Amino acid sequence: MLRARNLEAGYGDLKVLKGVSLHVAPGEIVAIIGANGAGKTTLLSCLAGLVRPTSGSISLKGGDVTGRRPERMLSAGCSLVPEGRKLFAPMTVRENLELGGYAIRRRYGARAGRKESEADMEKVFALFPRLAERERQLAGTLSGGEQQMLAIGRSLMARPELVMLDEPSMGLAPLVIKSIFTAIAALSESGKTILVVEQNAKAILRIADRGYVMETGHLVLEGTGAELLSNKDVQRAYLGKEYSSIDEEREVP
Amino acid sequence: MSAIDPSEMMEREDLEQVQVERLQATLRRACQNVAFYRELYARSGVDIEEVRSLEDLARLPFTTKEDLRASYPYGMFAVPLKDIVRIHSTSGTSGKPVVVGYTANDISAWTGLVARILRAAGVTEHDLAQISFNSNLSSAALGLQYAAESIGASVIPASGESVARQVTVMRDYKTTVLVGTPSYALHIASYLREQRIHPDELRLRVGLFGAESWSEAMREEIERGLHLKAYDNYGLTEVIGPGIAFECAERDGLHVNEDHFIMEVIDPETLKPVPRGREGELVFTTITKQGIPLIRYRTGDVSAVIEGDCPCGRKLARMRRVSGRIDDMVIVDGVNIFPSQIEEVLLKVEGIEPHYRIILDRVDGEDSVEVQAEISEDFPDLDEGAKVSALRMRLQSALDEALGIRTRATLVERRALERSEGSKLKRVVDRRPK
Fold first, then answer.
1. What is the dihedral of CA A122, A124, A125, A128, to 10 degrees?
2. What ipTM was reported for this prediction?
3. N or C end of chain A: smaller count of CB under 10 Å?
4. Are residues A252 and B105, on separate chains, in Cβ contact within 8 Å?
5. In this model, does residue B434 exceed pLDDT 80?
6. What is the dihedral sign for C-alpha B171, B176, B180, B182?
7. How is chain B split into domains, by residue range?
8. Least-confidence region, from B162-176, B267-281, B377-391
9. pLDDT range class, residue B312, cuts 50, 70, 90
10. What structural domains does chain A harbor?
11. What is the mean pLDDT of residues B320-329?
12. Residues on chain A touching B83 (C-beta within 8 angstroms)
C-alpha cells in the first residue's frame, strides 16, 4: 500500500527525519511509537503531503507520490486524521462530516455526489453510533472521545484506503482511550489500512500487526506488535529512559 | 496449515523493502550500542546514513571471526546482559571461542527460522525427532529442539548418548526424524551394518543434517545406510546457529532466510562481489538479531547463488550447498580455483571417479595445473588406449569449459589416489616455489 525510502525532511535548518524507510501492507495496522520529539508527527505530515521531503521517496499503491500535495494524496486514497482533531467547533457533527465528503461530491457532481456522500455518512454512523445520536450537536460540545470519532469519521468521508492517525488517544481519559482503540480495530476490520502514530505504546501495539520504534529521526526497530511489546528496549523507551542510561546499567565486565 | 511461511513467498520488491528497513534499523542499533562498530566505521570513514539501499551495504567494512574473538566474551553485545536469556559459544578449537547472546525475542525469531527447516522437509506434529547433536555450548541441538517442539513434533533429546544407545532409542521409540551431523549419521549407519540391524527395523524417514559440509556422495551413502531422505541445512553459531538456510523438497540448493539475513558472495582476494552465480565466500548480515547484530560477517564458507525460481514456490534466494572453506582455495595465475569446482566437473564426466588430486607447479614463470582423476570401476579397460585417450579428452574439455584456466588432465588407475576416511584429505599439492 504505502512504501517510503530514506525520507528526509525538516523545518529550515532543523532536520527532523534523517532517512526513514517504512512500509504498510494492505490491510495492516502499523504503529509508529517513540518519545516526544522523535519526529513521528513530521513523518506522518510528510507521508500526507503536508511537509515536503528534502530527499527520499514515497510510493502509494505502487505509484510514486513523492512531493504530492495533501489534496492529491487524499484523492489518491491516503487521508490523515491530525493530532488534536482539528474539527470545526461551531459546526454540527453532520456539517463536519459533509466537509469531509467534499471531494467525493465534487467527483460525482451535485446530485449523485450528495447521494454518495449520504451513503458514506451512513457507514460512518454505523461504525460510530455515538455520532449518529449526536448528528445535530455542535462539534465543540462533544466529549474528547466523540471528537476523535468525528475526526476519524470525517476522514473516512473521502473514502481513503489508507487512514493515518496522529496521536488519536492524546488528551483522552483512559476509558475513552479504550473505545478509540476499539474503533481503530473496527476500522481495520472494515477493510481500511491503518498507519498510526501513538504515544500510548502498550495499547497500540496490542492491536497493531507491526510497529516501528522511532528515535531522533530514525527508525531503530521493526517488528510485530507482540515482538515490540516484549522487547526490553521498547519497554525502557516506553518508560522514557534514554539509551545513555541503559549504557550505564550495562554490566559488561 | 500451510507449510510455507508467507515471509518465504514475498515478492522480491517487498522483500527488499523489508531488508532495507531492517538493515537501516540494525545499523542504527549496532552503532548506538556496540563500540566495535562505532569505532570500525569511524576508522573506515563510513557514515551509516549513506546506506540507502542493499547495494550500499558494500560500502561498509567486513567483520571477521578475529573481530569476534577479540571482543571475547561480551564486546559485541548490543543489549545489556540482563536482556540476554541464552548464551552459546563456538568450540574454540582454533582460538578463543566466540560468545553469542540471544534475547528472548532472538530465541523466538530463531525458533521460527529453524522451524522452516523442519517444515520444508515435511516434518509435522506426527513425527518423533531424535536430536543427536552433541549439545553443550553449541547452538545446534537446542535450536532444533525448540523449533521441532514449536511445530508439535515429539522431541527426543539424545545429545551425548552413545551410538548404541542412539540406535536402541531410535528403534524402541520409533524415531522418524534424525537430527545431527552428517558424519554422525554415517557413524550410525556403519554401526547398523556391524550389528546386522537392517535399516528397515527403524522408522526413520527424514534426516536433517548440518554443522559440517558434506557431499552428494555422502548424502547417498547416508540415505542407503539409514533408509531416510537426507536434507542439508546451513548455519553458523556466530550468526545465529542453524536456521540461515535450508533445503526444500527439491533439494536443489538451500533457501536463505533473506527476511532475517542478507547474503553476499564475495571474492576472498579482492573482497568484491563475484558475478551472480559464481563461487565465492559467503558473507552474512543479520537484520533482525538484537543480542549480537553482525554486519557483513565473512563466514569463510564457499558457495554461490543459484539463479532462477525454485519449483517449491518459495521466493527466498538459494545458495549452493557449501562446498568447502576458502582456506582450500588456490590461486592460479591470478584466478581463484576451488577444489570443489573441479570435483563438480569430475562428477559430470562419465567414466571417472570423483577422486582427484591437483598438482600445481611453475614452469618458466607460468603456473601449471595438473588434474589427476581416477578411471571408474565400470570403465571397460585401461589397456584400450584409444578409449582412454578419448576419455581424457572429454575430461580435458569439461575442465577447460568450467574453469577458465589452462589445466592438464591426466588419468590414473582406479584406487591410485588416497581415499577420505572422514578426515580431511590433502587434494591439492602445491609445488610452486614460494
1. 160
2. 0.88
3. C
4. no
5. no
6. positive
7. 1-327, 330-430
8. B377-391
9. very high
10. 2-245 (3.40.50.300)
11. 86
12. 232-233
CB-based contact, A248 to chain B, within 8 Å? no
Interface test with B, best of A6, A236, A248 (most B CBs within 10 A): A6
What single string gives the DSSP state of each residue in A87-120?
--TTSBHHHHHHHHTHHHHHHH-HHHHHHHHHHH
Under DSSP, the state recorded for B273 is: B
> Which three cell numbers, joined as nine digits, stand for A70?
495533501
Per-residue confidence (pLDDT) for residue B380, from 0 to 100: 65
- pLDDT of B420 strictly over 60: no
Check pLDDT > 80 for residue B12: yes
Alpha-carbon distance values, A158 to A121, A154, B46, B197 (Å): 10, 8, 46, 74
CA distance B297 to B6: 27
Sheet bearing B428-430, strands edge to edge: B408-412, B366-375, B352-363, B428-430
B2 to chain A nearest CA, in Å? 20
Of A22, A232, A252, Cβ closest to residue B21:
A22
Q: Which grid coordinates are listed for B112?
A: 521460527
- The superfamily CATH assigns to domain B330-430 is ANL, C-terminal domain (3.30.300.30)
**At B128, is the secondary structure helix, strand, or coil?**
strand
- What A236-244 contacts at long range (C-beta under 8 Å, 24+ apart), as own/partner pairs, is A237/A33, A237/A34, A237/A35, A237/A201, A237/A213, A238/A33, A238/A201, A238/A202, A240/A35, A243/B32, A243/B33
In tens, the pLDDT along B167-176 reads 999 999 999 9
Cell numbers at B237, concatenated: 553459531
Output the pTM of the full model.
0.86
The DSSP result for B64-93, as a single string, is -HHHHHHTTTTTT--S-GGGEEEEEE---T
Grid cell 482533531 is found at A85
CA distance B363 to B354: 27
Q: How many residues does chain B have?
A: 434
What architecture is the B1-327 domain classified under in CATH?
3-Layer(aba) Sandwich (3.40)
Lowest-pLDDT choice from A20-29, A76-85, B164-173: A76-85
